[in-house]
Design goal:
Order of helices and strands: EEHH
Low-confidence stretches: none
Structural class: mainly alpha
Helix content: over 70%
Radius of gyration: 38 Å
Number of helices: 2
Strand content: 5-15%
Number of strands: 2
Length: about 120
């Protein structure tokens, strides 16, 4: 018999006997000796799986958004855009009021202090 034909009987808790040949024993020994590499490879597989799950979740979320937009239709989107336009118009009016107020304050201060306003370049 050659060395490859050597078999080892390993008893288990259930009363069964597992037969392992020399290559299986060598494999287990290699795994024990290179456990750091094995753990690193397992961690890489876990990280790749997590990245895949993250991409899948993003794709599902994006598809849900598209479905929602298709369900609600363009009317909902147009009404939201109109609301945004109204908010922008209101903000622009507030800005104009504030500019007028600042101009009045500068005019009053320059009149009372007899200071000529600075020219813009």
């Amino acid at each position: 018999m050659g060395l490859d034909a050597v078999r080892i009987a390993i008893p288990s808790r259930l009363g069964r006997v597992w037969i392992c040949d020399k290559s299986m024993t060598e494999t287990r020994l290699w795994i024990k000796e290179n456990s750091t590499l094995v753990y690193f490879l397992i961690a890489q597989f876990v990280a790749i799986g997590a990245a895949g799950a993250s991409v899948l979740a993003y794709m599902v979320k994006l598809e849900t958004r598209v479905y929602t937009m298709e369900t609600r239709g363009a009317a909902y989107t147009v009404s939201r855009m109109d609301e945004m336009k109204l908010n922008i118009a209101k903000l622009q009016q507030d800005i104009d009021k504030n500019e007028d107020s600042i101009k009045r304050i500068v005019d009053v201060m320059t009149r009372e202090l007899h200071i000529a306003p600075m020219r813009k370049p």
